[in-house]
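Thread: "does anyone have the structure for this chain?"

Original post by V.I.:
We have the sequence but no experimental structure in hand. Need at least a predicted one for the grant figures.
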Amino acid sequence: MEREEVVVSVSHRWVTFDCFGTLVDWQAWFAEVLGPLGSHTAADVIRAYHAHERVVERDYPHRSYKDVLVTALGRAADDCGIHLSPRDVRNILMAGWASMRLFDDVEVMLAELRANGYRLAVLTNCDEDLFWTTHRLFTVPFDFVLTAERVQGYKPERWHFSGFERLTGVSRSNWVHVANSWYHDIAPARALGVKHVWLDRERTGEDGGSVTVRTQSAVEVSSVIKRLFAGGDVPAARMDGVRPDRRIMTAAVC
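Reply from O.Q.:
Generated one for you, tokens below.
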């Protein structure tokens, strides 16, 4: 009797990504749009911005990301002795938004993951319209997108992760999250028991000893994910404090 070959589909397996800093070179873009301030001043403002952004996202989770950007950058500029009106800040950021660029290794990684049969999604701390401008940078659209505007909150809170899980019905054993930011993505993924790959582009110095996998190049991500899925389940963690379903019942599915 001829032996029948059994092929196991991976089409039900998902790989989710943070966008800015992971797929898109956010830091280079920020330095470029703030370039008129001078390179040293721009660097100081960017460092201050990241600290203020965390506070604004935490304290005002229902505000649009545009408002988060304007508020946090305005406070950062003040810290550095630079006066920028909210209108100036908004004009600087919105005029330059479309000039963002992908990291050079991103398209190869995404193409390889798609060739291996995975579905790809983005969980982003961004507004709908801003992300769709960025989405045009990619050769192939993502299968699923969940923005801060949709879930009415910001990572590292759990709403993106819980929303993605509920809306797709994915099991933890069939899901890997990939991101650069320890604070916004890796720490919450780890706490929730979601498999994760820390794409540590910025080498920020956090202790990565407890992460599932740590790499500094997107070129390695596809092979790493293949090994993760072959290695079995990661124990699920409770999603305590998940907000009511009405916050996450709609999402952009491409």
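V.I.: this helps a lot. The first strand starts at residue 14 and ends at 17.
O.Q.: and Strands lie at 14-17, 119-124, 144-147, 175-179, 195-199, 213-215, 252-253.
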